[in-house]
Amino acid sequence: MKIDIVKLMLITLFIFGLTFKSIYGQSQKYHSSKFDYSINIPNSFQKGQPKSLNNDLLFTDKAGASINMVVVPHDPQIKSPHELSIEIFYSIFRSIDPNVKIFDDQKIVINGKKVFKHVRSIKFIDTPDKLNQVCFTYFDGDMQFILTLACSTSDYQKYKALFDEVGKSVNFN
Predict the structure, then answer these.
(1) Which of 15, 45, 66, 136 has the fewest CB atoms within 10 Å, i.e. is most exposed?
(2) Side-chain half-sphere exposure of 95, counting CA atoms within 13 A
(3) pLDDT digits (tens, 9 = 90+) for 96-105
(4) Is the pLDDT reported for residue 3 higher than 80?
């Protein structure tokens, strides 16, 4: 009986892995030309032109989902992303959308780095739909790396696992 349960679990994990790859395809490793990090980007996303000086990378897919990394100096009084809180992000994003919702905040460790992760549901003036943005904040040296993965709120469940995989793939060399 125990062996059957173990076999069933292994088969389920194998099928989930195949399903994940068949939905999202293979990924490519992107190495920043300015900063010392890499990230896995799904092949279904194409490289775009970042719109600001602080935006180090931008990738989008045909459905309008995006992956971007903003790099800025971090506040020297904040020693770790684990010191961040959703209150800080509410204070920033309520000026853009008074109805912004921030949820699923987590203090995690990815590849040996402390990371603050949260999801926000926000409406920007220049977008027709409300967006869900999955944000990972990493510190490396005196820089703050903010990875934002965004899609329409209606597509969030479709992208949720993919966005987590991309966020967990960031590696500082």
Answers:
(1) 15
(2) 4
(3) 889 999 989 9
(4) no
The amino acid at residue 95 is S
CA distance 149 to 146: 10
- The pLDDT of 35-48, averaged and rounded, is 97
The residue-averaged pLDDT of 107-123 equals 95
User: 155: which residues sit within 8 A by CB, 6+ positions away?
Assistant: 63, 65
DSSP 65: -
The rounded distance, in Å, linking the Cα atoms of 156 and 21 is 18
CATH number 3.40.1000.10 given to 27-172: yes
Give CA–CA dist 134/165, Å, rounded.
11
CA distance 85 to 58: 25
What pLDDT digit, counting tens, does each position of 77-88 carry?
Answer: 999 999 998 898
Domain edges within the chain: 27-172
Across the strands, what pairs with 6?
Answer: none
Angle (CA) 71-49-97 rounded to 5° is 65
Could you tell me the pLDDT band of residue 12, with boundaries at 50, 70 and 90? Answer: very low
| Distance separating alpha carbons of residues 163 and 85, to the nearest angstrom | 20
